[in-house]
Amino acid sequence: MSSQATQFATSFERLGRRVLAQFESLPEGWWDRGPLSSHRETLLTLATCFLEESEYWVLVIIGGRQMGGEHAVEDCAPDVHATMLERYERWVTQMYQVLDRLPDAIMNLFVAVPLSARETFGAESVTVRECLLYALEQSGLLVGRIEGLGQMVAERERFLHELRTAPELGSEPDTREDDARETTNVGRAGGAKQAAPMTLHVSLTQLLKRQPDTPLGRRDALLVCLFVDQSLRCAEVHTLRVKSIDLEAGTIAVSGEQGNLTSLHPMTADTLIAAMAYLPDVQGQEPLFAGCVEEQTNQVRPMGQRAIRERIRELGERMGIAKLTPEDLCRF
After folding, report:
1. Quick one: which of 104, 137, 163, 239 could link to 201 by a disulfide (CB 3.0–4.6 Å)?
2. Count of beta carbons in the 10 Å neighbourhood of residue 226
3. Which helix (H) or strand (E) holds 126?
């Protein structure tokens, strides 16, 4: 019968195989991609974290080994695949080397907890068993994040593929890249011409709403919802104030371009959720979306229409769509 420590090693190996299976299920070109371009986490960064976390608790804390000198998996281009396999095989071997020789009696002995983790454990030392359980728990959580991220990346790539091959975009695939969109008159004699809005795939609009849980990400999520779900114009979004949003009533008070007419718009569920997440970030601020601060008065000015358009364009480029405009989102 195998020792308790060996059983832990077997569990670690199973988790490692799940990580490898996740990588094998996706093209290598996707390994360094997040669900959105603004996401810093990728399969490779999480895989490196998985290795380093388990190595630290098992090989260093319990095994007493000195670690260091290993490069992150994502830094091993161009042969990332071979490097990752080699690193994982070495990791499995080292885990067994340390844990296979631990008798059951040692499981109740104490090891020192590093200063950075003492708050987590609430003690300066824990048993070997508790240390292994913690390492296994953290490794399992990382594997779950890796598998979840892999699904999100695959979903993103599938959505983008559908977008690129959608009939409404597929007939003229080069028009946006060549800055040669079909143009249309704005509706008054002698007026300038505008680019006709594109038709967006429903999957892309949903991805655009999924922004990072940061102040900037929460702002962008609400900005996208105001165009996609509420169909507001850029000039209307520019004039919104924090007090324009009534969370209890679920409405947005939108002023006309001259500021003399106000209409109430019921918020969709996505807009309401985005507003609830974003408003705590801007309490005490007058404009809903802040722009520059005037030096003399220290007054926060609203985000300009040009800045809003530029931000929407940037969000579109992160999703692989060039020259996205608020009008494109409103058309959805």
Report:
1. 163
2. 30
3. strand 125-127
Element (H, E) at 85: helix 80-99
CATH number, span 4-164: 1.20.120.450
- Report the predicted TM-score, pTM, of the whole model to 2 decimal places: 0.51
Tens digit of pLDDT at every position of the chain (332 positions): 568 999 999 999 999 999 999 888 888 777 776 655 445 678 888 898 999 999 999 999 999 887 665 555 555 555 677 888 888 999 999 999 999 989 999 999 999 988 888 888 888 999 999 999 999 999 998 998 888 888 877 877 776 666 566 554 334 444 433 443 333 333 333 444 445 556 666 667 778 888 888 889 899 999 999 999 999 999 999 999 999 999 888 899 998 666 566 788 999 888 988 898 899 989 888 999 988 776 677 777 889 999 999 999 998 888 778 888 998 887 65
- Between CA 28 and CA 81 the distance in angstroms is 7
Domains of the chain by residue range: 4-164, 198-331
